[in-house]
Amino acid sequence: MNRTMYDLIGLAAGVCFILALKGLSHPKTARRGNLIGALGATIATLVVFAYNAPLNNLGWIVGAIAVGSLIGVPAARRVQMTQMPQLVALFNGVGGGAAALVAIVEYLALGSDASTAVVIFTVFTVVVGCVSFSGSIITFLKLQELMTTRPVVFPGGRFVIAATLASVLGVSGWVVVALGTTPLLILAALSLLFGVLFVLPVGGADVPIVISLLNAFTGLTVAASGYVLDSTLLIIAGTLVGASGTILTRLMADAMGRSLFGTLFGAFTAKPQDASAAGEERPVRSGSPDDVAILLNYARRVVIVPGFGLAVAQAQHTVRELADLMISKGIDVAYGIHPVAGRMPGHMNVLLAEANVPYDQLAEMDEVNPTFGQTDVAIVIGANDVVNPAAQTTPGCPIYGMPILEVSNSANVIFLKRSMRPGFAGIENELLYDPKTMLLFGDAKASLTKVVSALKAL
Amino acid sequence: MNRTMYDLIGLAAGVCFILALKGLSHPKTARRGNLIGALGATIATLVVFAYNAPLNNLGWIVGAIAVGSLIGVPAARRVQMTQMPQLVALFNGVGGGAAALVAIVEYLALGSDASTAVVIFTVFTVVVGCVSFSGSIITFLKLQELMTTRPVVFPGGRFVIAATLASVLGVSGWVVVALGTTPLLILAALSLLFGVLFVLPVGGADVPIVISLLNAFTGLTVAASGYVLDSTLLIIAGTLVGASGTILTRLMADAMGRSLFGTLFGAFTAKPQDASAAGEERPVRSGSPDDVAILLNYARRVVIVPGFGLAVAQAQHTVRELADLMISKGIDVAYGIHPVAGRMPGHMNVLLAEANVPYDQLAEMDEVNPTFGQTDVAIVIGANDVVNPAAQTTPGCPIYGMPILEVSNSANVIFLKRSMRPGFAGIENELLYDPKTMLLFGDAKASLTKVVSALKAL
Amino acid sequence: MDAMAIVSIFVLAVFVGFEVVSKVSSTLHTPLMSGANAIHGVILVGAIIVADHSETTLELGLSVAAIILATINMIGGFVVTDRMLEMFKGNKKGADK
Amino acid sequence: MDAMAIVSIFVLAVFVGFEVVSKVSSTLHTPLMSGANAIHGVILVGAIIVADHSETTLELGLSVAAIILATINMIGGFVVTDRMLEMFKGNKKGADK
Ligand SMILES: NC(=O)c1ccc[n+]([C@@H]2O[C@H](COP(=O)([O-])OP(=O)(O)OC[C@H]3O[C@@H](n4cnc5c(N)ncnc54)[C@H](OP(=O)(O)O)[C@@H]3O)[C@@H](O)[C@H]2O)c1
Ligand SMILES: NC(=O)c1ccc[n+]([C@@H]2O[C@H](COP(=O)([O-])OP(=O)(O)OC[C@H]3O[C@@H](n4cnc5c(N)ncnc54)[C@H](OP(=O)(O)O)[C@@H]3O)[C@@H](O)[C@H]2O)c1
After folding, report:
1. D49:A52 CB<8 A
2. Which of A49, A384, B201, C63 lies 20 to 30 Å from D24 when distance is taken between CA atoms?
3. Average pLDDT along chain B
4. Ligand nearest to the CA of B210
5. What SS3 class is residue B9?
6. CA-proximal residue: ligand 2, atom 29 (nearest)
7. Following DSSP, what letter does each residue of A407-447 receive, concatenated?
8. Does the beta-carbon distance from C26 to B231 stay under 8 Å?
9. Could you give the CA distance from residue A150 to residue A142 in angstroms, rounded to a whole number?
10. B419 CA: nearest ligand 2 atom
11. Measured between alpha carbons, how far is B431 from B441 in angstroms, rounded to an integer?
């Protein structure tokens, strides 16, 4: 296969990626878009084999691909929906790692004849790839709740971070000037460290934003490798991801009502917060399934606010049962969907869609907020941060500024949760102590089942 | 100035053009977008001078630019709003002509060492440039009504066109193979002819669509010249215009309810039409300003349908006066705006905006059509095609398929026009003979003034 | 610049062109067309280049003609577009729609 | 390919990237991120190239590691994205919103 052919097919793959992103940004075409992307990736991979055939180390290469597939596919197939975001984070991390490794190999292979540009781009890839790798791992640990989801901030932390960044830049310069393996490895180590420090202070709602950002980073490293390896395809694909990732990061930040700047430089500005520890001893009003049933029975309008807990309890079908029952009793029922309820945007839509909840019962935040005034009961099922008044009242708390569902405007609020433990952002929710609030402790599914039968009984 | 610098500045100009199109497609940023485009063009021009300095024939070049400006600027400044579309057509034509001339010069200068690709692109530019030139001139004549706006079709016309196209392609091949001036000039002549034949059969509403198409063509020629002259800027700018122009053509066609295919290949498919000649002798119900005033006075809801005639009569202020008067009498008044009323999209919005008509009184076609049922009087001021039922009833008539304002659903229809002459598309309007229709003959402004005073008197 | 690069640039520019205007409201069709039309006036650059290279009087004559036409297209185009848009000032609110 | 071409391609690709996703609805943020994430898995191509060129065992080892990671990113990414989107099947109507 001649070079032109190779390049043209590469370009075709690039076009596939454009079409993929285009498709992915419209609900109707999203799935097809993803498949087109996969097609492009396949073409790109096959054509390398064809063009460079016969490849040296062919066995190793094929073997490695096999291993990668054997790890990646099952992971992607088995993962629970609730854990997809952290899996994406993980995938993004390994992508960054791959880019970094490729760059390191290029670096080792660099002749002294290498142009400065090439060296710079190589070093750039190593640094950003490593940051993306370690940073993504941390976000994974946070989302997987293998470590606290709250901002990890230690006194003077920001100086440590600044220092690390400075030394990364310094060593980069050194590595560019004086080609050498040791400095490169030091640089890689420093970059990994910086990635960790960069993400640690990020907490709660900002995590998905940071994933998206690191995703864009990885894209740029791919583009840079494309320059070094003289592959237009990698340049196009990488740049596409870098650009769209950046926009997407901004869009996400807006959707969650976060300042992107705050997120990015949170690392440098974050001060240790005294987010009150969960589970203090303060009186709360907890009720029985029957109490809840009675409240619901005499309500004219009820708004159901689902959250992450609903997904954990897999209670989507039960909640629908309850809703239908209430509707049959002539109660006006709506679901209040917060854009970031759950662990991924659209999480609740997806979850309730599984239970075939009629779409017109789902009300977005802006629609539903004005209606709480006329709502008799807001029943909050496994949600917490998205209804936490602290977002409006407590400057400096991790979710401050995030728009919330203002359930407190309704006559009664019912919380279904298992304990007094806080939610994702790890902060106390004053609303739980509000006199108009009633708590029904227990797993959402169990509680809902009880409520349903109690309501039937009435 | 070194090459890299030159290219980078060129790229910057290209980016300006992208931003220009981006801006132009949003009302708030449109004007700034246009200025950014102008900026890009200026940069592009200056940098050529700088890079190739000192230019040969500098005097000639500067002189020519001066002449061009002295022609273009006043034309653009003086033109009446109603004539802007044809001016745009004209500008597009000269652009195509310029591209063709440039290509001819390149062709003359071509050494025998020129690569086939270069030759092909040069010839392509000559052909398409000429088509765009002559075609645009025809559209200009049509819009300027220096010739009939109706499709010009002669028996067997489509075969002539097909033949011309064939010979254009044939000669192109010849010119590519055997470099020679005579064949090139023949080719140019044939292309000019084809442009004329291509546009002649296009009538009425399709004209602006064709302008947009020719505009896209010119863009492509510029891109081709960019390849020949090794100028990335020209390639980018030309391609941008080509691509956006194509989309825009489709959007326009949709807005006017025309099939793009029908428009493009209309030339080949168009059959001589028996669009009934204007002004037959058939009874119509014509009324006096007082009759109109009385009808309006006792109406609960009135819809005003402005058209090209309102612009001709410059009656926008008078119509507003009438509307305000009716509103003061408690009559519910709305303006029904057809997307292609007038001679350019948005023509009516612009016109009424001049008279500061409150925006909320302007109703788009889709909003207003369902309301005619509850409308007592639809007063059609200098509009014709956009309310012509033939668009729905008469297959094969030039405007067939164009969505219209269904004024005939309202209890009474009043037409303000000067005569029984048809509108732009040159076809009879049955509605004028409808018993529920009353005609008030005369210049729209004069008639409106009379109606206003009559209505005041009541 | 090698052919491949040009093809890539062309393809990408096509996508940019498509995407950028794909959401324009019908009110802006004419100004947008007019603006795009002005943009292809940059053929002026090409005209200048060939004028610079012209040896024969014929070539020069044609180039000069090309420059005149291109300038009309470019400058006239931007001016008329600006005038069209100026008319929208009236109803910003409308424009927002 | 000369530097200029690369810069042009980069700039244009940036615009395409921006434009293409700029209108995505918040429901699709996660799938879109996941899809884009899968796309940068094409670094696999790069990994294969360096593996092909590897002389030393160190280079080969690193390349092989890179290939494994890249494959996980690419294939895993597309599969998980597809699964996410599969879940939307439920409410096409919702999705349309
Ligand atoms: N949507 C996104 O894109 C996204 C991504 C990442 C992070 N986030 C963040 O995630 C949070 C989402 O807010 P949220 O209100 O939906 O969830 P949340 O704030 O995390 O609260 C979930 C609540 O559900 C309860 N819960 C857990 N398992 C339960 C079960 N089996 N039965 C009943 N209750 C259960 C928990 O209390 P108990 O433990 O006491 O039961 C917890 O209070 C926000 O902070 C958002 O920023 C969102
Ligand atoms: N909007 C665009 O983008 C665009 C562009 C090009 C073409 N077009 C086409 O233009 C047409 C627009 O339809 P339209 O209904 O607005 O206009 P029209 O169909 O051209 O009808 C205009 C009417 O106004 C009357 N008129 C002219 N001067 C007048 C005056 N001073 N006082 C009173 N009446 C006057 C004419 O009748 P009298 O002569 O008897 O007075 C004529 O019947 C459509 O066919 C459309 O496709 C639109």
Report:
1. yes
2. A384
3. 88
4. 2
5. helix
6. B309
7. GGGSSEEEEEESSS---TT----GGGG-TTEEEEES-HHHH
8. no
9. 8
10. 40
11. 15
Of C96, C36, C29, the C-alpha closest to B251 is C29
Q: How far is CA D65 from CA A43, D44, D68, in A?
A: 22, 11, 5
Q: What is the DSSP string of A262-283?
A: HHHHHHHH-----PPPS--S--
Distance CA(A128)–CA(B439), nearest Å, equals 75
Q: Which residues, 6 or more positions from C2, have their beta carbon under 8 angstroms from its beta carbon? A: D1, D2, D5
Tell me which residue has its CA closest to atom 43 in ligand 2.
B423
Residues 6+ positions from A218 with CB-CB distance below 8 Å: A92, A95, A96, A99, A128, A129, A132, A241, D37, D40
User: Where would I find the beta strands (DSSP E) of B353-441?
Assistant: 362-364, 377-381, 412-417, 437-441
- Helix, strand, coil % over all residues of chain C, rounded to 5: 90, 0, 10
**pLDDT tens per residue across span B371-412:** 998 999 999 999 999 999 988 888 877 778 788 999 999 999
Minimal Cα distance from D3: which residue of C? C1
The tokens describing C18, both together, are 């498509």
Name the residue with the closest Cα to ligand 1, atom 39.
A421
The subunits that touch chain A, with at least 3 C-beta pairs less than 8 Å apart, are C, D
Do residues A95 and D70 lie in contact, with contact meaning Cβ atoms separated by under 8 Å?
A: yes
Query: Between chains, do C63 and B105 touch, taking CB under 8 Å as contact?
Result: yes
Reported as a single tens digit per residue, the pLDDT across B45-88 is 999 999 988 899 999 999 999 999 999 999 999 987 778 888 99
Residue A454, CA atoms < 13 Å, CB-side half-sphere: 16
Structure tokens of B6?
């030159």
Helix and strand numbers (H, E) in chain B are 17, 6
| Cβ of residue D15 closer than 8 Å to a chain A Cβ | yes
DSSP SS3 for B300? coil
Name the A residues in 323-382 with CB < 8 Å from any D CB: 339, 344-347, 349-350, 352-354, 356, 359, 362
d(Cα B414, Cα B296) in Å, to the nearest integer? 10
Closest alpha carbon to A315 in A342, A344, A293, A276: A342
Identify the sign of the CA torsion D27, D28, D31, D32.
negative
> Does the complex come out with an ipTM higher than 0.85?
no
Q: Contacts by B148-151 with C-beta closer than 8 Å and gap 24+? A: B148/B426, B149/B203, B149/B204, B149/B207, B149/B424, B149/B425, B149/B426, B150/B203, B150/B204, B150/B273, B150/B275, B150/B398, B150/B425, B150/B426, B150/B427, B151/B200, B151/B201, B151/B202, B151/B203, B151/B204, B151/B266, B151/B270, B151/B273, B151/B398
Separation between Cα atoms, residue B421 and residue B428, nearest integer Å: 8
Closest C-alpha to A175, from A184, A165, A164, A163: A184
Secondary structure (3-state) at B362? strand
Ligand 2 pocket member B384 (CB < 6 A): yes
Phi first, then psi: give them for residue B306, nearest 5 degrees: -85, 150
Q: Is A381 helix (H, G, I), strand (E, B) or coil?
A: strand
Mutate to test the pocket of ligand 1, among A88, A314, A343, A406 (most ligand atoms within 8 A of CB): A343
DSSP A115-169: -HHHHHHHHHHHHHHHHHHHHHHHHHHHHTTSS-SS----TTHHHHHHHHHHHHH
Residues flanking ligand 1, CB < 6 Å:
A 85, 204-205, 207-208, 256, 307-309, 312-313, 340-345, 347, 382-386, 399, 416-419, 421, 423-425, 443-444
**pLDDT of A48-61, one tens digit each?**
999 988 899 999 99
Burial string for A42-78 (b: 16+ CB within 10 Å, else e) reads: ebbbebbbebbeebebeebbeebbeebbebbbebbee
Task: Provide, as residue numbers in chain C, all residues whose Cβ is less than 8 Å from the Cβ of A19.
Answer: none
Integer angstrom CA distances of residue B430 from B273, B286, B359, C36: 17, 15, 32, 39
Q: Is A274 a catalytic site residue?
A: no
Residue (of D19, D81, D30) closest to A252 by Cα position: D30
